[in-house]
Specification:
Layout (H helix, E strand, L loop, with lengths): L4 E11 L5 E12 L5 E7 L2 E3 L16 E3 L25
Antiparallel strand pairs: 1-2, 1-5, 2-3, 3-4
C-alpha cells in the first residue's frame, strides 16, 4: 500500500447568524483504498475529523447556520445575511 498524500487546505467560513468570518486549515489525506480506488480522510489540528462542510459551527456564537466556501475563496467583507449580491467593480481609466 502506498503512503498517503497529504494536502493542506484552508477553508473559509461565514456565520449567517452573527456574520463572523474565519478560516480553518484542514489536512486532506488521500490514500489507496486497497481495491484500486482512492479514499480521502480529514484531520483538523492533528485529530481525525469530518470534512469541513459537514456540520460546521461558529466559534463566536455556536450557530450552525454556517456557510462553507471552497478552499482558496474569500467571503465578501461586507456580506449581509443570506448572501449579498456580488457587484462587479468598475474600472477606472
Amino acid at each position: 500500500m502506498k503512503e498517503p498524500h497529504i494536502i493542506l487546505q484552508t477553508w473559509p467560513f461565514n456565520c449567517l447568524t452573527c456574520q463572523h468570518v474565519w478560516e480553518s486549515v484542514y489536512e486532506a489525506w488521500h490514500a489507496d483504498d486497497g481495491r484500486g480506488g482512492q479514499v480521502v480522510t480529514w484531520r483538523y489540528k492533528g485529530t481525525a475529523s469530518m470534512p469541513p462542510w459537514i456540520d460546521p459551527s461558529c466559534p463566536s456564537c455556536s450557530s450552525l447556520r454556517v456557510k462553507t466556501l471552497p478552499p482558496g475563496s474569500r467571503p465578501p467583507a461586507d456580506a449581509e445575511k443570506d448572501e449579498a449580491p456580488i457587484v462587479p467593480r468598475q474600472r477606472r481609466p
